[in-house]
Amino acid sequence: MPALPDDDDKKWVYRLHTAVKHQILQKYLGAWVPILGKWNKRLVYVDGFAGRGRYSKGEAGSPLRVIDTLVERMDTFPGSPEYVTCHFIEAHAGNRDNLSAELTQHPNAHDRRIGYRVHPHTFEADASGIMREIRATGEPAFFFVDPFGYDDMPMSLLEEILQLPRTEMLINLMTSFIHRGLAWNTDPKMAHTLTTLFGSQSWQMLAVQQDLPMHQAIVQLYCDGLKKLGAEYTVPFPMGHETIRKIIYYLIHVTNSDMGARIMKDQMIKAGTSGQFGFSLDQPLGHVAMIHHDLDMLPELLIQNFKGRTLRFEQVIAGTLDTSGAYMQADYRRVVKDLATAGKVKIHRVKNPAGKGLDYKDLVEFLH
Ligand SMILES: C[S@@+](CC[C@H](N)C(=O)[O-])C[C@H]1O[C@@H](n2cnc3c(N)ncnc32)[C@H](O)[C@@H]1O
User: 358 Cβ partners below 8 Å, 6+ apart?
Assistant: First the structure.
């Protein structure tokens, strides 16, 4: 069956997983803007695969949504930041025309605190010029990397993005397609695509690994690759398709900021399926597909990880962020306080020694 062109209407049905993806993106940026804007008057947002302005029934795509979020936050927190430059890269002329037309009609796109540019080539071709500008100004940037496939987001380009100062990414990794592609790995063209995607031939290990379901092995290998390039946090959030009930992709948040990683994880949990780390509507997506812990597993996890050690509360969260499943910051706070009451940890309050709270800088001593 020939592949559908990227502007085919069938590719632009607004599905539940798309709404969840947009919620995560918007809620996170809603926090990112005032936090970074406190110290930086100008920020940059890059949508590397921007898409249409609107989906088939008029639902807004990521560029319009992000602009609305930026304007709403700048209204709520005036002056933080003063200006956001948005770069929208869209390779397909049909989708790009739709995006440009919608942006022209969208009042918030003409807010004086927003500057937007629509770039007409590919993510790979247009990102270099954008990165040159970011390097010159040193402005913090957020990259949304949201392709339909996986053959146009080379790891070498993500490496360059990671080297920019104070830059974060939200990457859509199409594990279901990659899984299928792996079956064709003897084809030289596919082998080249996979090597470009992973940045090495490490993907060849996937054929022989038996420890994990394949999509988990793919995302883990990919995140390990990002970490080798200097990414501190790479939290992968599984996304299911509501009708086929399978994991189709992972959203991976890539950041070097403790606070950013914590905030994003909370937003992912809030947008996802209750009690799980991921979005799956009402069905679990395969019993081992999600990282899923019962709510009373966090104490055990923390004790296993940190017994005999003393760490700041923020390090306790950071050290277990990608293994603790659907636990939010508030859960960590409650569990550490409960462990203190049970005599299993001691809290040394740095910020407010006489208080009862738990600050990120407070020390948590895990007793032997
Ligand atoms: C998944 S859609 C984007 C959806 C959009 N980010 C949203 O959330 O509403 C992917 C888009 O990337 C475009 N595209 C495909 N290859 C591209 C490339 N190499 N560079 C930039 N855009 C590309 C497609 O035409 C399509 O519009």
Answer: 313, 333, 336, 337, 347, 349
Q: Report the CATH number at residue 51.
A: 3.40.50
237, 271, 305 - which closes a domain: 271
287 has pLDDT over 90:
no
Q: Which residues pair with 47 in a beta bridge?
A: 88, 144
Determine the atom of ligand 1 nearest the C-alpha atom of 94: 25
pLDDT in tens, 109-156: 999 999 999 999 999 999 999 999 999 999 999 999 999 999 999 999
Number of structural domains found in the chain: 2
Domain boundary among 256, 271, 286: 271
Atom 19 of ligand 1: nearest residue by CA position:
122
Please name every residue paired with 255 in a beta bridge, in sequence order, or none if there are none: 233
Query: In a mutational test of the pocket of ligand 1, which residue from 10, 46, 90, 117 has the highest number of ligand atoms less than 8 Å from its CB?
Result: 90
Mean pLDDT computed over 333-344: 96
Is 319 in the same domain as 229?
no
Q: Which domain holds residue 362?
A: 295-366
Rounded to whole angstroms, the Cα distance separating 292 from 155 reads 29
Q: Report CA(163)–ligand 1 centroid distance (Å).
A: 24
Using the 8-state DSSP alphabet, how is residue 250 labeled?
Answer: E
168 with 238, same domain? yes
Task: Judge if 46 and 191 occupy the same domain.
Answer: yes
**Under 8 Å between Cβ of 169 and 143:** yes
Residue 20 Cα, ligand 1 centroid: separation in angstroms? 17
Are the C-beta atoms of residues 255 and 235 closer than 8 Å to each other? Answer: no
Ligand 1 mean position, distance from CA 198 (Å):
20
pLDDT (0 to 100) of residue 322? 87
Indicate whether 351 and 221 sit together in one domain: no
- pLDDT, tens digit (0-9, with 9 covering 90-100), for 15-65: 999 999 999 999 999 999 999 999 999 999 999 999 999 999 999 999 999
- Considering the entire predicted model, what is its pTM? 0.95
Q: Examine the domain organization and report whether 108 and 254 are in the same domain.
A: yes
Structure tokens at 10: 């069938």
Q: Are residues 222 and 350 in the same domain?
A: no
- Tell me: do 257 and 304 sit in the same domain: no
| pLDDT band at 289; cut points 50, 70, 90 | very low
Whether residue 343 has pLDDT greater than 80:
yes
For residues 265 and 307, membership in a common domain is answered with no
